Structure formats: structure tokens, C-alpha cells
């Protein structure tokens, strides 16, 4: 009887050990953030996507033209220059450069869970001329201190992807108040 109980306990112990070792998989997922140092270094602009939504529905090009007219902005106001670079330094400062633009400098702060990146500057951010944007458009994306919170979609040693999203009510002549959202995804690669 004791022998049978001892055998069953041994089998149970072996099964628990196997379960423990199988569940402790050490494979590194390349999509998993590495550490706060992953953001450090010189990043080159790779691509961007921009999408406009009205009341949660993505707009086609015709409606985008209408929304831009209502917002009193040009699509180019949201575009990152193709030759843009961003350098994030260990002292929590950054520098942005692109042909035809003044060097942009400021501070960065990556949240401990690496889901949010806050950028602040005393001048323009992301090559967007803040002074030329209507206040309600600035309010869509920027905090009261003109900093911007960016959602980190991907951050590895060589690739990053960030989402800037803003949503708010706008009065559209003939259509009443519309809930407008703009999503700008910026993809960078590390040089």
C-alpha cells in the first residue's frame, strides 16, 4: 500500500516538474520590448500611416479632404519629412533633424512599462509647426504644456513604431458636431 502511494507521489512529482519546465520557456520574442536602453541611439524615419475617423468609422479620401478643410489644416501638416532622424540620448534628451527644418531638441521619458513615450520641447515637435495649427487641432494631440504622449506599438533594438492619436468633437457646417479622430503611426529603424 505504501509502495503504491509512493509510486503515485513520484509520478505526480515528475509531472509537476515537467509542467514547470515547459511553462518556463526562455525563447525571446522579438516583439517584446528589450529594456529602456532600446530607445537610445539614432533612429531613421522609415514610413508613416495616417488615418482619419468620424464617429469611429474610417474616412475615405473624399471625406478626409472635407475633415482637413474643417480642421483648417493641410495633410502635409501631419507628415514627417522622409529624411528625418531622431536621436535619443541617455541623458533623456532627444534631437530631431531633417532637411529644411531647424534642429529640434527636447526631453523624452519612456514609461516603465514601455507603453508610452512623452516628448517635450521648447520649440516644435516631430517637425509639426505648432504655432500654425488651430488651437482645437493642437488640443487633439498635445498636452497643455505642448508635450505629446505617444503610444509605443513596437520597440526593439532595431525597429520602433509609435502611434499618435487624437480625438475630439468638431462642429461641421450642415452636419452638426462630429467626433473626429486622427491616428498617425510613425515607423523608425535604428541606424
What structural category characterises the helix and strand content? alpha+beta
> How many helix segments?
3
Task: Write down how many β-strands occur, each being a DSSP E stretch of 2 or more residues.
Answer: 9
* Average pLDDT: 80
The SSE order reads HEEHEEEEHEEE
Helical residue percent? 10-25%
Task: Flag low-confidence runs.
Answer: 4-34
Strand content: 35-45%
Q: Termini separation (Å)?
A: 68 Å
Radius of gyration: 24 Å
Strand order of the largest sheet: 1-3-4-5-6-7-8-9
What composes the largest sheet?
A: 8 strands, antiparallel, barrel
Shape verdict? elongated
List strands and helices in order, with pairings:
Layout (H helix, E strand, L loop, with lengths): L1 H22 L17 E14 L2 E2 L2 H11 L13 E4 L4 E5 L6 E7 L5 E5 L14 H7 L6 E8 L3 E14 L3 E15 L1
Antiparallel strand pairs: 1-2, 1-3, 1-9, 3-4, 4-5, 5-6, 6-7, 7-8, 8-9
Describe the protein.
- This protein is an alpha+beta fold and 191 residues long.
- Helices cover 21% and strands 39% of the residues.
- It has 3 helices and 9 strands; from the N terminus they run H-E-E-H-E-E-E-E-H-E-E-E.
- It has helices spanning 2-23, 61-71, 135-141; strands at residues 41-54, 57-58, 85-88, 93-97, 104-110, 116-120, 148-155, 159-172, 176-190.
- Strands 1-3-4-5-6-7-8-9 form an 8-stranded antiparallel barrel.
- The longest helix has 22 residues, at 2-23.
- The chain is elongated, with a radius of gyration of 24 Å.
- The model is unreliable at 4-34 (pLDDT under 50).
Amino acid at each position: 500500500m505504501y509502495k503504491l502511494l509512493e509510486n503515485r507521489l513520484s509520478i505526480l512529482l515528475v509531472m509537476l516538474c515537467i509542467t514547470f519546465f515547459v511553462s518556463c520557456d526562455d525563447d525571446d520574442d522579438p516583439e517584446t520590448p528589450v529594456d529602456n536602453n532600446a530607445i537610445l541611439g539614432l533612429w531613421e524615419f522609415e514610413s508613416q500611416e495616417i488615418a482619419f475617423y468620424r464617429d469611429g468609422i474610417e474616412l475615405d479620401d473624399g471625406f478626409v479632404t472635407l475633415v482637413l478643410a474643417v480642421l483648417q489644416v493641410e495633410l502635409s501638416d501631419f507628415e514627417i519629412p522622409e529624411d528625418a532622424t531622431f536621436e535619443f540620448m541617455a541623458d533623456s534628451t532627444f534631437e530631431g533633424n531633417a532637411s529644411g527644418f531647424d534642429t529640434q531638441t527636447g526631453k523624452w521619458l519612456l514609461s516603465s512599462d514601455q507603453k508610452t513615450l512623452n516628448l517635450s520641447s521648447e520649440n516644435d515637435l516631430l517637425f509639426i509647426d505648432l504655432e500654425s495649427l488651430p488651437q482645437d487641432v493642437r488640443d487633439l494631440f498635445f498636452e497643455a504644456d505642448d508635450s505629446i504622449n505617444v503610444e509605443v506599438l513596437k520597440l526593439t533594438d532595431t525597429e520602433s513604431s509609435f502611434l499618435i492619436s487624437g480625438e475630439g468633437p468638431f462642429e461641421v457646417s450642415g452636419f452638426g458636431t462630429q467626433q473626429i479622430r486622427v491616428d498617425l503611426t510613425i515607423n523608425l529603424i535604428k541606424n
